[in-house]
């Protein structure tokens, strides 16, 4: 069998037994050069027009970039004119920002490039010449000596029309040389050509020459690039007069790693593009590099606190969407769908809020390496819910949207409802949909079955369990309570009454009269909001008497007692709905029988005339059915 992969040859590693970089760390940000408007731009289907470049340039300045490669002025009139426009418009290029432009090693093109810079305050002229065997042989037909001669000739020419030209004295000049295809160039030859260029330019410690060492094509694993950079840094002479710059491309998907290891290997500067735009698989991603530093506690000197705004501009100007999984910036990056992730994140936030984690001010949240707020993302966006989600996700959204801190049991119960819904729809449920589902499930907006219209809770003195001592007034604390109230049941109003130890149990007792026999198993309550608008939220879990069936009810009201009564009626409604085919569905009984039944029944009394409705109008069929069922002993 032929193996087509054999046409590729393994990249030979460097023999660098004393390499130092593996035990180094990155302790400060590098000098950044944003080349979005040059390397990024040259790789676009439709390169940016002047206005798009203008917008992008202003954003880069606002973000804090001090070195910006703005164009390839000899390539197009657009690039030339844009360079002129930012130089000629007062205030657009801040005094501390270097504008960099690129030219091939060709005198005519260098001349045109320098012309575009006239009047700039700080200008960085960048020229490139490919130095690998492959390029010298295939593209130029040059020997190593011929390449060196051309690089030196162009450097001298560049010098003569920039820093050596008295008419250019108003500009502070800096010079960058890129041995293009450095990553595929023999390290010894890279040193030789750069030494020659250095001698031609004559840099100083105050104004060093930039040797930009590109992985024009990423050739090998990132450690090999780091070795190449360490070799260069330790073998080039007059290191103090040199700024070693990186320019990694991402052909093997390792550009970020290569840039990081190569900084450990001694580089001072990094060239790249926001979100890794650039030739083929892109330049190294400057957002990732900067925020990687940030999450190590090192401020990168670039402000990504409103990353969404950056994304907007980048997407509009590049006409390429940012991948939803792009590090830091992707829309799905600060989202968790899966249950166990949501659970851990939620617990992390709770611990942080309560100061319960032992990390003081340090960011320690499971699954989230960065506080989304630091890049302008909201917490709401973090947890999203689909059929892969657990109780924590929906509970988080209910907490955020409705300010309801659901007890664990209710989280479990509601999660089943959410999961079923998401599964049926086959998609994510939006947070509005989840909060609406909660309101509907627990009848928060309206309870079509039971609505409490009026009620009073009184002490039932008729049943004194603790006889008062002689000469003392009756002790009321332990006396039963009596619920008397008007409850709209399926739209019609009835008077219910019942006894119990407190308001909830007396209403529960009243409900027995309509065939709803619930025991309260759990009760939780908390306040919502504060000041005058404060409300009580009550959660009641009930078991159906004599069964293991459990239902939850939720009530919200300014009055804490009424909130708990509403919660019980919410549970009662859930109970009825959870029992399809139960006694509720038996056929209706005649009204006359019903009236008799109502009178007989201790719990349910149709009022003579409440809100203009007569009891003789009858009660809804399902309740009628309950009564019928009761009468039948079901
Ligand atoms: C890795 C990088 O990103 S490098 C930057 C790449 N960016 C760009 O190329 C974007 C802008 N480029 C352009 O607008 C054009 O390519 C220009 C203006 C630079 C040159 O355009 P053209 O003169 O039409 O040449 P073209 O690009 O087609 O081909 C390059 C030619 O220059 C030759 N060449 C390259 N470098 C040199 C040099 N230093 N001296 C003399 N000739 C050179 C090549 O061998 C080739 O010659 P050939 O046509 O005889 O084979
Ligand atoms: C011009 C050089 C720096 C370049 O873009 C590259 O080699 O990738
Ligand atoms: Mg490049």
UniProtKB/TrEMBL annotation:
Its cofactor is a divalent metal cation. GO terms for cellular component: mitochondrion. One of its GO terms (molecular function) is metal ion binding. It is found in: Mitochondrion. Its EC number is 2.3.3.13. One of its GO terms (biological process) is L-leucine biosynthetic process. Residues 30-308 form the Pyruvate carboxyltransferase domain. PANTHER family: 2-ISOPROPYLMALATE SYNTHASE, PTHR46911. This is 2-isopropylmalate synthase. It comes from Pseudomassariella vexata. The lineage of its organism: Eukaryota, Fungi, Dikarya, Ascomycota, Pezizomycotina.
